[in-house]
Structure prediction request, 1764 residues.
Amino acid sequence: MALRLLTAGESHGPGLVAVLEGVPHGLPLTAADIDRDLARRQRGYGRGGRMKIEQDRVRIVGGVRHGRTLGSPIALWIPNRDWENWSRAMAPEPPDDAAQAAADGDWRLEPVTRPRPGHADLAGALKYGARDIRDVLERASARETAARVAAGAVARKLLGLFGIRIQSYVLRIGEVAIPSPVLEYGEDGRPPVDPAALEEATEASPVRCPDPVASERMVEAIRTAGQAGDTLGGVFEILVTGVPVGLGSHASGDRRLEGRLAGALMALNAIKGVEVGLGFAAAALPGSRVHDPIGFRPPRREGTEPAPAAPGPAHPAARAAAARAGADGWRGPAAGFFRYRNGAGGIEGGITNGEPLVLRAAMKPIATLRRPLPSADLLTGEPFAAHHERSDICAVPAAAVVGEAIVALELAAAWIEKFGGDSVDDMLRNYIAYCERLAAW
Amino acid sequence: MALRLLTAGESHGPGLVAVLEGVPHGLPLTAADIDRDLARRQRGYGRGGRMKIEQDRVRIVGGVRHGRTLGSPIALWIPNRDWENWSRAMAPEPPDDAAQAAADGDWRLEPVTRPRPGHADLAGALKYGARDIRDVLERASARETAARVAAGAVARKLLGLFGIRIQSYVLRIGEVAIPSPVLEYGEDGRPPVDPAALEEATEASPVRCPDPVASERMVEAIRTAGQAGDTLGGVFEILVTGVPVGLGSHASGDRRLEGRLAGALMALNAIKGVEVGLGFAAAALPGSRVHDPIGFRPPRREGTEPAPAAPGPAHPAARAAAARAGADGWRGPAAGFFRYRNGAGGIEGGITNGEPLVLRAAMKPIATLRRPLPSADLLTGEPFAAHHERSDICAVPAAAVVGEAIVALELAAAWIEKFGGDSVDDMLRNYIAYCERLAAW
Amino acid sequence: MALRLLTAGESHGPGLVAVLEGVPHGLPLTAADIDRDLARRQRGYGRGGRMKIEQDRVRIVGGVRHGRTLGSPIALWIPNRDWENWSRAMAPEPPDDAAQAAADGDWRLEPVTRPRPGHADLAGALKYGARDIRDVLERASARETAARVAAGAVARKLLGLFGIRIQSYVLRIGEVAIPSPVLEYGEDGRPPVDPAALEEATEASPVRCPDPVASERMVEAIRTAGQAGDTLGGVFEILVTGVPVGLGSHASGDRRLEGRLAGALMALNAIKGVEVGLGFAAAALPGSRVHDPIGFRPPRREGTEPAPAAPGPAHPAARAAAARAGADGWRGPAAGFFRYRNGAGGIEGGITNGEPLVLRAAMKPIATLRRPLPSADLLTGEPFAAHHERSDICAVPAAAVVGEAIVALELAAAWIEKFGGDSVDDMLRNYIAYCERLAAW
Amino acid sequence: MALRLLTAGESHGPGLVAVLEGVPHGLPLTAADIDRDLARRQRGYGRGGRMKIEQDRVRIVGGVRHGRTLGSPIALWIPNRDWENWSRAMAPEPPDDAAQAAADGDWRLEPVTRPRPGHADLAGALKYGARDIRDVLERASARETAARVAAGAVARKLLGLFGIRIQSYVLRIGEVAIPSPVLEYGEDGRPPVDPAALEEATEASPVRCPDPVASERMVEAIRTAGQAGDTLGGVFEILVTGVPVGLGSHASGDRRLEGRLAGALMALNAIKGVEVGLGFAAAALPGSRVHDPIGFRPPRREGTEPAPAAPGPAHPAARAAAARAGADGWRGPAAGFFRYRNGAGGIEGGITNGEPLVLRAAMKPIATLRRPLPSADLLTGEPFAAHHERSDICAVPAAAVVGEAIVALELAAAWIEKFGGDSVDDMLRNYIAYCERLAAW
Prediction:
């Protein structure tokens, strides 16, 4: 079954909903699996006060029983902790006139008519014919991404069974930048980094930058921007290891995996650029330096003890089958073929090639600035200077975590298309059969 | 009706098919409208011999009668002119044994087992279990994009009725690059270029670069790369003027227009990066320099003679209504609101804001190199040096034209969602009503 | 925007969720609009005890503010009132062992292994590899239809603005049956019934049968079946008045409106047959008695006071425009064309023709019987006699109400495709323009 | 990959196109496989002259090489043999004025303004704003179903590999009817008929009725109706044997297989009713006589020689695995569970239960009558009597063949969702693993 996701909920409404349909039966899943990613989304140096208010916790209200998915749609509910302060301003019911009158003085009840450059405010109000920008900004807010992170945690759990590991790290905040650590390989195609070590370094940084020196400079840049009433964007990278050859397809434009991944990432709030592998750098290099030479090492046959393919598929039989097909904890099963570098970012012609997926996204700076930008009133057209008291200064680390979720969802969708199966057990069986086909190639 | 497209056909098969469903009734359309773009796709310095063979011409075989669309699915057929040389190698029917025997010596009938780095060859063969890479490369070839260009020409024709103009130009070939000419505006938000002049300069260049000096240097870079047996990629930009405020939506991730556009562009063969507006540059700048200040000029009211909004909607009533709502040939109708620059590339929060759309895509160099790259045989794993006699050296100008088609298709889909209507006349009526709502804002 | 719906939630879980995406901005909507249909779904002679427990009430948790839709996804939450009794049996979290031990004796915690003929029990357990049928039956239960009714109430509210009225009534319970009251017209094509009177008679019947005599006999049949430990099915009809000509399309199989409506109705639990218009009766008649002769009365022009088109579009301008285009409270706008009977059920060639939609669905008897049916244990294959204590005897009246919701959702989807518009105001404008085009035909 | 189909082409245009995307790699397929069904669609007593003109032959123009599918979209082209007589009336290009003038007297060039009751003529012309009904009738014609039959032949070929057999027969023409031969089983659940014998009897009848006496009476009824200038409809049944338990899903309304099948069948031209299993008869019976008792016979284990499961999966390993899981040529694999009758028509709760699928569809009489029906001119509203010279009298046998194709396409889509796999070999492997899971149940 194709994976389908709908999310709902406003930033200051009662909460957020995600319904994820198409997850197979039998996946181990608890609220803690999801809360972990919700918490990671809320961290990061440079966030404003709201992150502390929220402390998101999911409630699973459908599709899961006794810690296992049922195959029915999974419903997730993330309450907004600030709801009690907004219950009148965001009430679904029409306001009671008396109460409205008494409410004079509560700014939350006044229409918002001052569009902020860089937000959906103006375009959305004109599109929908809304005279109160709040009708738009409540849903356009990045608060919605909490729902996508929750759904993404389910997808990650599924992929994790098969040894797929999705991680993110920050490569740039404003002018402070480091290069991607994963495109150039060591001798004979040796992986350039250990994914676990990279993750550890990332999680230890307040800005998700695995390079400690750059991390400190990024913190400093955020502090300086904040003092100037300004904001900063940046670039994050998503690394996915253990991906088998053969997800996605070349057969039609909208089946190509890079398109699906890039489209989903660009649809994340504030993202203005997406790259796969070398990305824009590939445009400046000659072909001989871009394409990834192909090597071959006979994969291990049955009977051979496979090297520990950490993290590798959780399921022992899947782990062994993947190893026989050439998976090594960095690469996924690919019949023993491998590359000497990864300029393609793990995708060629719309199809995964067994190397890790490498994607980057560029986030623009937060659009709510303390430092004013010229704007014009929605109703009168009168000019005013848009400025705001409270805001995040930089949300790139949070966006990276959301990016992981987005990639997990797209990849799980491609996974389900390829491996079918209504239950995790069927899917494992089909995955093992595929690995064995590759091992016997 | 939602717009749907399927294409079919192999590179050396009898031809290419595109079926485009959801185009309204009454759109003027002839084969010449489509052939124009097919011809533009075949131009460009650095192409190999095949472009001369093909000289694509479309045959409309469904959905059009007497020069107007019927509202039924439009079927387009583009014959492959080289088919007679490939009719045995690519025959749909199983080969006759005797004929097969006689065929010894025809390399077209031998299985391809040597995967080329940078192509779908290896990943596709492993995915599908194909022992002959031809089963994959025939469809993974960029030849398929001719079908998308043909379908895109229909979308362009539809959008053109409403004054939407889609053009592309090349910003980079290898190391030779120019900056985007359209993001920074003149005083008081004056458009930085005249779209018609930009188009003229572009079409005059053998590499679609509107800057004559850079154009010459690009030609030189291609010549040099070709002499070295190498290939080059580059960057193209798509500019869409006349876009009304309000296409796309912030309401769900997969409704956001930038995601749909970026996903479709990344799904074009050889694209490795996509940007909207400032793109990656936005990640390095502070918020105060990124977001686009909002201005307002009262739009012209009925009775006022609108300034000539060239090219503007083809239909006079639509042209007048758009002008009253603030359209000026650069911007589309947006109730008189405008921006002092266009760092957002015309989209905020998933929704068009009335400024032109600005998208860039990075293309990697052609993967078929005369200069060999190490590879391994599909069946034996034996190493070999992949090299090829004939190939394009650079296809960025062609990709830019395909990019126009892709953007046209996505934009037409969003257009149809917003304006509904089963016929072009209904759609015009709905568009005019929207413009009038904006004009009266 | 296309209308999308996902529902989630198990029969004895915490509650049901519906997320409905694509509803335009500005639709008046309150919980009371939805609760009305939820209550109607729970009525009907022959229901078991659970209907009293539930007393469904919706909570709107997204997409609506101050009594109006925002254009963002609408999230609806219907708590299951029996949840506290099932919170351990249906807990999303893995059971605590101690608690589990203490639970001995609670049948709710024991696996269900005895499949009931006529339910998804056996097929679902085998499909998903579930050893506990509860994993399947909880979602396969008709409890889910409460979520579809809630979403359908939103669609009904939207369509109601344009004078579309959706009603249902029961034509058969077991052997007691009446013919459709709406296919044969009076002289000169006069409508055979007044929809309001038909609705009143229907709502007054405990089995939704507008014929009082048949209604009593149906009640009696249910009582008799219940005494025999048996169950009954039946047939309901959906009547939709005020539908404009031109929804749906002939252009592709999956655009044909009858296919979309029939598919959605057949997907309702326990439905085994669907008819449009004459349905199966058409197969036995000659063509001359089946097809609906076409008549024409010049529609009223502007300036003419239109006759009261009760209920008619709620919006005065839409009401007037519809009347000018020939709408009369029975038929929708169709340029003055009408039919002398309605054997087609309002759809020809996939497209509404202006006459009311008439659809019928056949419901099989409730599959949970007090009277035993032979079955075999899921795990051992041992034969047993499936019998059950508590159950509904007949749910046809409830299914009819769900059928209204299903038709409302499909029709709203077709409506949005045709009329586009992001807000109810835009949609009204487009609808009026269409009526005016028809009026001037 | 999800299966997607678009068709295009007008009744008197150059031909019909079908693009079918999502078929796995490696399916044996030739034009003869498709032509067989195209020919079956053209047979049947009661067809007019056109069937002789057409003699459809498909040309495969994409997605197939050397008799095997490539995994890329399959493109099928069916030329209209009458095209040369219509090349001016249906020319895609605008007419040349001189030629137009010379054409005076050719009725094919005159606008059609007289809508035929029972066709899309009037509704379509009003919807699209077409002043010439030909713009609508050309696509609304049942000629389009040839494209669906061609695509369905591909789906049938795929399903045939797994022992799934799809056949149809006519149960009613006008007043002559026979009951379904397949719902009531023999003792101990013995299948009531031999599918091969049923097919043989069907194909021998000029009206696809397997009962020779009824067949003769049907022919007579058609002859009589034709002499009276009238037309006849009827009912056909689709029987699908060898279907494994577990296709479709209960989890969401639009995943339920009966909904997808019924929606697709109702979308076939002229269909007004669809039933699954007992259909409307179930509404009149008590539950104890409707639901299908469940039995169990231990399926054969590995090592046991399975009884010949004719036709059974073509692939020997799949055939053996299916037999071990309980398949017997009538039922598909279902872990040894079976039913004592088949009132459910093989689907419970949206999921196949291992028994054969049984679907019926009611076709209204042909709407083009020699005997006139009152109608009104599209442009003037003037009444006229619609009558026509040439037409089919009865097309139920042809519709039955189209119904097979439609069911094949929906079933193949559900198959691909469940079993995944990019190649037929992968799919076989996954199918066998599923059978083995069921066999070991």
In short: The mean pLDDT of chain C is 92. The first helix of chain C runs from residue 31 to 42.
